[in-house]
Amino acid sequence: MIAQKTLAKKIGLVAMILSALAVLAVSLLSVWQQYSSAQLQAEKQLRTLAEMTAFNVAASSMFFDKISATKVLSSLEVEPNVVAARLILEDNQVLANYESAHKNRHTLLRHISTSVSWQEETLGRLELDYSLHQLNLQVQQQIRYSVVAAFMAVVLVGIFSRILIPRLLKPLTQLSEVAEKIGYEGRYDLRVEPSKAQDEVSQLTRRFNSMLDRIQQQDQYLRDQQEELERRVEERTAQLQSTMVDAQAANKAKSEFLAVMSHEIRTPLNGILGMTGLLLETDLDAKQKRFARIVRSSGDDLLTIINDILDFSKIEAGRLELEPHHCQLNIVIEDLVERYAPMAQTKKLELLCNTPLPPLSVSVDSVRLIQVLTNLLGNAIKFTEYGEVLLEVKVTEISHQSVTLSFSVSDTGIGISEEHHQRLFHAFSQADSTMGRRFGGTGLGLAISQRIIQLMNSEIKLASTPGKGSRFFFDLTLPLIEDERNIQWVEGFEKLRVLVVDDNLTNLEILGHWLRSWRIEPVLVNSASKALSVLQDIRSTKESFDILLTDWMMPDMDGGQLIESVRDEKLIDPWNIIILSSAGKAIEENSYGVKRLIKPIRQSELYNFLAAKVKNREGDIRNFKTHSAQVVRHQFQARLLLVEDNPVNQEVALAMLQNLGLHPHLAKNGQEALNWLHSHSVDLVLMDCQMPIMDGFEATRLWRLHEHEKSLTALPIIAITANAVLGDREKCLDAGMSDYLSKPFNLDQLMEVMSRWIPCKTEMKELFDAKSVFDRTADQNSPLSIKQILNMDEDSLMQLKALRPGLLVSVIDLYKTTVPEFLVNLEQAISHQLADNVFKIAHTLKNSSAHLGIRVLAEECRQLEVCARQDDLTNASAHFQKIKELFALSLVYWDELRKEGRDI
Amino acid sequence: MSISATETSLRLAFVYNFTKFIQWPESRSAINLCVVGDQSGLQKELQSYRSTLAAKQAKTVVKLTVLHFPKLDSSIPLKQCQMLYLVSSSTLSSLPDVLPPGVVLVVNEPQVSDLRVSFSLIKTTDNRMGFLVNSAALKDAQVIVSSQLLTVAKNHQGDKKK
What we know:
CATH superfamily of the largest domain in chain A: Histidine kinase-like ATPase, C-terminal domain
Strand order of the largest sheet of chain B: 3-2-4-5-6-7
Structural class of chain B: alpha/beta
Oligomer: heterodimer
CATH topology of the largest domain in chain A: Heat Shock Protein 90
Radius of gyration of chain A: 57 Å
Radius of gyration of chain B: 15 Å
CATH architecture of chain B: 3-Layer(aba) Sandwich
Number of domains of chain A: 5
Largest interface: A-B, 16 and 17 residues
Largest sheet of chain A: 7 strands, mixed
Shape of chain B: globular
Distance between the termini of chain B: 27 Å
CATH class of chain B: Alpha Beta
CATH architecture of the largest domain in chain A: 2-Layer Sandwich
Strand content of chain B: 15-25%
Largest sheet of chain B: 6 strands, mixed
Number of strands of chain B: 8
Strand content of chain A: 5-15%
Distance between the termini of chain A: 78 Å
């Protein structure tokens, strides 16, 4: 409370308190001194009075004259302090007595006793009782006066404080006001008027003004400096802007040059690769085929280099964006490793793959992830002369929403010294300058891979010992996707007795880990002779193994010799032997008539084999087919328009399309294409982008406009461009194109894109058959009656439509193009009695159909799913027929709906 | 000395006390008290009085000497008697009309006023011992009497007023 008072009030208050205390103390001291003095004086007077009285009563005492004595004592009444007196003779007889009339008023009595004598003869004594009551009353009065004086002093000091202290403090107040203005307004030009006095406040004022002088100077200096800096910044900014404009222009020129060069290189490269591919499929002698393969291989290398440069250009421009999507990680990894199996086989390297168990589905840009792993795997194989290369994916942390995976590629190659580790990830740099000459490569691959992984919030690290090998590794935390296709049923697996034989300890470890994850306790041995010994031992116990997994290439005794020994001694049923072999050994191994799994082994294939064994369906095992890398070439049936101005590209594309059973109409530019489309019915357009007269972008834009005006169904238009540079894909999609194919492309890439948009011949045939079924059953083909048959849920369609314009159409188109492939796979699974596969496909088909509101079809799929889950495929064929018919009806429903112009 | 003492001794005490308040013209270191009378027991009282007096006067400057004369006759050296105490007032007539200066006469219960008597020992109405002072006789005797003594005298002015 005191702290909030002004300084003037505080000083005033202190002065008042001190004054009051001083006045009170002095007054009380004075009163006490006066009281003491008065008391002494009074006592002295009383003693004198007593002595005088004693003298006066001497004669009375001598002559025992009581009356006279009493008379003398009565004279004491003149002294008010005397309360009583007694004259006592020598024999203690009281001769006379006196008492004051106000005796009762006095309380604290004091006594004086004096001798009564005459000429040295003691006659008795006079006792006097007295009181200082009057004196005390006077003292009390004095104290009251002192208090009043102190109070008056306080009042006076208070009044004078209010008048004088503010005057004394006025300079300080002015100082404070000026300081406040300076603080708030930054006015360093203000000064405080110094007083004429030479006191401390005056000194403070002068020093404050001096301080302001200094601050003003510094402020001015800083302002000058700031202005100078701003001027310099403006100058530099102008220079930088000028430089930036130049740089942007240079960058643009570089990009354009890159685009042009890319286009110019890719166009002839397309011709080289396309024609070489076609050439290789013709009848050539061995020498010609070797030359053609070299041309193809060189072309592929050149394409890889161009792609690397383009990727690096994208990364440098910060335009490389990830496109995460749902993918089955195990399958993606196993596909990748499988592609490198032949290369490893060529170098006699053991290529191993260890994927997570149970299998995972995650959201990731799998294209970029594969690009990184491809680079690491390619390098590992390239720089390893003997030994093994292992691609391993391990789960390090998992939750409901995400999973942290540790990816690593290890090899037993030449290794990299410590000082070359960092340089390795720099662009156009290899660990050793001699490597480029020895192994080739641009040195961009690792730099690109590192940047991609950095975009995924991680970093590729390296652990390597020269001469012993290298290990590139990185961790990724990815969203986890729930995918029923990853579910593995392992009931009954624990009953299987499995013997695994492999001289490669890493592979042995991987297989052991997988088998144990499926609750199997395998026996692992690293040589054929040990396996033979184990088999012989167990036969003596009248037991046997259910499955023998054996490597083919082993020292001392290989897989073939082991199989022969096993067969001769009848140690295990040959149908229960699985050879783990490399692709190149297939023919040799097949001569033994046993099943084989191509190394690196796919986890899913081994699982399927074991699952079939558990179900104890011998036929299944005998008919068990492993995944084959052979590509089935589909034959399409569609009305196609190819728009291409370059004669070489025309030739390549036409040849490839003919291989796929397609005979497209050719247009040389966008204008010709538009003219054709206006007068002909077309199922798909392959559109080049850069063309004279009218380019592909413009043609597509105009056609989409036309479709919109006429409310036509969107025609699939696939862009073909050699400009695989920044923003090219976005540019195509913005122009309204449906898909994108970068030149140079091979037959497989073309087929993959085509299959996304048009059904193949076999599927179409089935569909037409299904439609004929409908024709037989439905009356008048009216959408209403089909709708009733399908029990369409139009609310589901409306919900999809409300989410985003065009989404419903996209989903329907996707449904129409993907379901035929599902149906083909479903039919195969039913014919092979693969209940698990039937279950998975039926489940997927059920969900897709339910999303589009085809209730009856979804219900049919659900019934098939239930049967497959119960391993009962007795009625599976009947369900399949019904599903096919209902799908055909749904196609008719969509087409009729569009024909009627209903808004979907 | 109490008032309950025998009257004779009390009267002797009064006489003795008178000496304390009287200042004779010539400074004296000894005073003679001449007691005249032959009453029975007086001799014995005087004897007792002398012994008491001797004890008292051990500390005093002025010595009192008590002389006893059975009867007033010419043998009494009046000039030697600073204090003359007549136990019986009847003997007054035997005294010369004018006493030598310096002789203070004390008489018990005088019948008539006699200008030669300085102090008259009397009994008060309440049967207490008192005395009267004759200032003229004291003047004639040329002695000075303390005012203290006067205030105690029964004929003191203040007392009379009262």
